[in-house]
Automatic annotation (TrEMBL):
One of its GO terms (molecular function) is mannosyl-oligosaccharide 1,2-alpha-mannosidase activity. Belongs to the glycosyl hydrolase 47 family. Its EC number is 3.2.1.-. Residues 522-547 have a biased composition (Basic and acidic residues). GO terms for cellular component: endoplasmic reticulum quality control compartment; membrane. The active site is at 121 (proton donor), 262, 355 (proton donor), 376. SUPFAM superfamilies: Seven-hairpin glycosidases (SSF48225). The lineage of its organism: Eukaryota, Metazoa, Chordata, Craniata, Vertebrata. It comes from Geospiza parvula (Small tree-finch). InterPro entries: 6hp_glycosidase-like_sf, EDEM1/2/3, Glyco_hydro_47, Seven-hairpin_glycosidases. Ca(2+) binds at residue 479. The gene is LOC115911898. This is alpha-1,2-Mannosidase.
Amino acid sequence: MRAPGAAMRRFLGPLLCLLALRLPAGSGTAARGLDVASYRERVRAMFYHAYEHYLESAFPYDELRPLTCDGQDTWGSFSLTLIDALDTLLILGNVSEFQRVVNVLQEGVDFDIDVNASVFETNIRVVGGLLSAHLLSRKAGLEVEAGWPCSGPLLRMAEEAARKLLPAFQTPTGMPYGTVNLLHGVNPGETPVTCTAGIGTFIVEFATLSHLTGDPVFEDVARKALKALWKNRSDIGLVGNHIDVITAKWVAQDAGIGAGVDSYFEYLVKGAILLQDKELMSMFLEYNKAIKNYTKFDDWYLWVQMYKGTVSMPVFQSLEAYWPGLQSLIGDVDNAMRTFLNYYTVWKQFGGLPEFYNIPQGYTVDKREGYPLRPELIESAMYLYRATRDPTLLELGRDAVESIEKISKVDCGFATIKDLRDHRLDNRMESFFLAETIKYLYLLFDPDNFIHNDGSDFDVVVTPYGECVLNAGGYIFNTEAHPIDPAALHCCRKRREEQWEVEDLMREFYSRKKTKKFTLKRAPDHGEGENAKDSKDASSEKAGEKRNSKKSSHSLLSCPSQSFNSKLAVLGQVFLDNT
């Protein structure tokens, strides 16, 4: 048998490491007497209260207006809530509704429309949601076409939507405009000023598209935009909030980790993990040094002037609450927990996170008192709980359920909280409530969900390029919480050498059946009920072969001999090469 080449080793190393690692099922779930199963079912009920009222009162509009029980288009007239909620349905085990919605979207969504759309929002919500649903469609029992996951109707929809965004990247710097007309391209007179996150939040979706379709244009433009931001950082290593994409001049020079910047940092880390890309991780780690040096004070992160490092805004923004989860992905769990606990104190003070919180004064900022049911603190709790099993993180989930149900629930869904001080409501339910907030809450309370697979189970599928491994875990959530299976990026390579390597890898696994006592079974594909608990029940017998490895006593950091390119995030940790 040929020794695996460099390309295949990037895949072989993480997979073998994943197969050696597994937490006992359900471990840590009885924290401090909290009834995890009960809260999980309450979260499920919250989802259906919101989702069913969207279908009844708002579809086909983008979003539900819960106070008036009607709908509105917000980000482009895509039936956005339906796209955003699709993978949440499967995570909750609702196979039949997932299948129904896929058919509705194929028949009803049209991107060839005269609409001005946010490039950023269309990417993370529409392209990300369709890619995730495409990669989960076989697990959901859909009959997939020959060549899947390298082809399929949802993939074609995602590609069509992404191509509508490409004209925005045609700038001298490679940094995209913030808005594009889906029919005509960039409008004459469109402002060239775009926020940093609106430039640096494409690599997860666009690289996935390039790997699945074989068209490099998507990954190329995403990388060029990332590198343009890196090139234009300040001498002290910081980036500002808004930049002119034509001249590369910074228009807003506030540097921080929150609104307008946040998902740029997130995508450097997640892009590095997804693509096993050392350069992206190195970029983030350099930013992280500057962020710690200039913006961090007592485990809070302030806003500073990007060239001088002087404090410009001593505020915490609710969007910054993703940061502890991101820290956990690079293994910085102790610092992550300290910052998380700071943010949790704000939640306890108000029953939610106000958009802006003045740290010295310990109170909200004028006209920024609202909480639009954002997911970021819950997201961090989910990541950190996977890494630590600290019961405090479940308590945040409990508090979130209690607060949202008490303050935000109305007859037609859940309403944005306009002011946390007096609990006034606003007539909007953003699609991210079903895509992110509910999803992260459910996953926090469902430790055995297929999303948390540690690599001990996986499916083998046959593609035109040979066999490949899917559903082994290690899912990368985009910034709208749409999970991407990183293994799928290895399924559609056209180089014959890699095809041979994949086939050799699978033969090696099969040969270990006797020596390692693996058990081989067919993976079921079709669900047995609308609310099946585990979406493993949603896979049909066509789904290829699955193995269960025996429980291992290896520690979480048990891949010391692998180079950076052979390492992957496992249970909230990223293995870094410190040599």
